[in-house]
Amino acid sequence: MGKSAVVLLSGGLDSATVLAMANANGFSCHALSFSYGQRHNIELKCAEEVAKALGVVSHVVTNIDLSAWGGSALTSDIAVPKQGIEDGIPVTYVPARNTIFLSLALGYAEAIGARDIFIGVNAVDYSGYPDCRKVFIQAFQTMANLATKAGVEGDPFTINAPLLEMSKVQIIKRGLELGVDYSMTQSCYDPAQSGESCEKCDACRLRDAAFAELGNS
Length: 217
Prior knowledge:
By secondary structure, the chain is α/β, with parallel strands linked by helices. The chain has a single domain (4-216), classed as HUPs (Rossmann fold, 3-Layer(aba) Sandwich). The protein is 39% helix and 12% strand. It has helices spanning 13-24, 42-54, 97-112, 134-147, 149-152, 168-177, 202-216; strands spanning 4-8, 28-35, 58-63, 116-118, 158-160. The chain has a 5-stranded parallel beta sheet, sandwiched between helices. Helix 2 (42-54) links the parallel strand 2 (28-35) and strand 3 (58-63).
């Protein structure tokens, strides 16, 4: 078996691709998902299916209630925008979410002896999220190696964000090459109780546009 890695797995398109990429690179993957009070918690069922289909050493679902303080359309009663992509940081931004997720992934990784963490952040296609930028990933890696026993003893962590500078079309193409079945994934921010996508939120628009471009290419 290869080196161990912790892979953040939301159940969406990007994280499924990242898991497939980590597997392809020979890592023994420990998937980590979060039930954080998100309105689109159908993604956790998708994460479970993706983890089983692609293969992981383990899959842990951790409960943290970010809805306790809200501040986002994903964790409160704020309406999810469906009028098209807007400028600036959208209301679907969850305060400090990736910082929180990576911090928990860091603790998990150190505990099991993994030194690689994979996250599916992407800065090329629209998001507007400050915690999806290269400078944030670099800063977190620096912090990780200052804040941990492993880091200060010379066994550093690497935060891998292989999708960071890829377009959504490029991400899907790579995933298809690696055998990802995207019908198992869920990207919608405001799905129906049945799990069906709304087809109108920013996440749906980006996903649908990418698949449409692929279909026309």
